[in-house]
Structure formats: C-alpha cells, structure tokens
Amino acid sequence: MSEARTITEQGVARDLTAFQRNILTILAEEPMYGLAIKRELESYYGDEVNHGRLYPNLDELVELGFVEKSELDKRTNQYELTDDGEAAVFDQFEWALSKVVTDENRAEDLRTLVDDQL
Where is the Transcription regulator PadR N-terminal domain (predicted)? Predict the structure, then answer.
C-alpha cells in the first residue's frame, strides 16, 4: 500500500463519528452479527440503540472498507473488521494514548490498568 493511500485512509478513519469508532472497537474483539453489536453498544451507552442508527452506520463502515459484511444465514449478516478497520482502531488508540501518557507516572497508571484487564 502506498504511503499516500495510507494517509488518505487515515484521514477518512479520523473523520468517523464516535459511534462508528465504537462499532469498530467492538468488532476488534471478534466478528459479530448486528444484534450482538447493538447489545454491546447499548451496554456501553446505557441506553437503547435504534436499528435506524446502527445499520446505516454499519453500511457506511462497509462502504468505506473498514468492515466486511457476510451472510450467516438468510436473515442474519455478520460483520468483521478488515485490516483497514483494525488500523483505524489502533490509530485512534495510539492518538488517545499520546494525549494521556504524558509522563512516567501516567504510563505506570496505564500499565496497571492494562494488567488489571488481562
């Protein structure tokens, strides 16, 4: 992949909404069908996520090449993060870390947080 294309894709990924980035983050764990994504989002937001909000955003992420959509059965689609989608998740994570980890004390706090999650 050329550097120019990578920079362009990075720019597109950085223009995603927080809701779209949250979908990518959820899919970083494993491929899921739409209702499972909806449940994860509702757990995070503490509120109902409307189908009319979820599926257009999933479709846009598919069109942008961050998510791949496949058919599980006649009624259910599965969504999976692409390599570009994974790169978008890591780009956002790296940027956020650069703002949070500003000294060794904060780096140690982050190490503790990560260790607690594992």
Answer: 23-88
